[in-house]
Amino acid sequence: MLAILSSEIFWQFTILNFIVVLVGTLRSLITIKGGKWSASIANAIYFGYNTIIIFITATYEIPLSLKVIAVAIVNLVGVFAIKLGEEKMRKEKMWIFNATAKVNSTELLKVVELLKQAEIKLVYTKVTNTLYTMQIFSNSQKESEMIKSILDNYNIKYCAIETKENRK
What is the pTM of this model? Predict the structure, then answer.
């Protein structure tokens, strides 16, 4: 067993599988977020390379249990690494919360004050004495969480809409 783990063929197998995990995860992201051409190219590269991995998996003289363990470990590390990188590169987008508040004016002013204290921009309109509509603008995930918490505490119904770009 130790001889296999220290063998060049085992490490080639592991590294090649690590590459397929990275390419496969990137392919998934590109397929979901990219255009027709980028998705097509990403899939062509992935499935072409994956053919090599299938051949290597079938022909390399490594016990199946070690292959399974190596593939599981490179998947855990590789997918985590790509998703972490994606998270770091992701741009914050502005979200607009459209809310309908069935509250009295005192409660509405409390909600407005809480949002303003958090430096969250908003516009509200009185529809009736106990019904208000609100547009609340969030520039980050942190702000969105604050908005949700405040609205939920006052049982205010809302929906959130993602915009194309951030205002900041």
Answer: 0.57
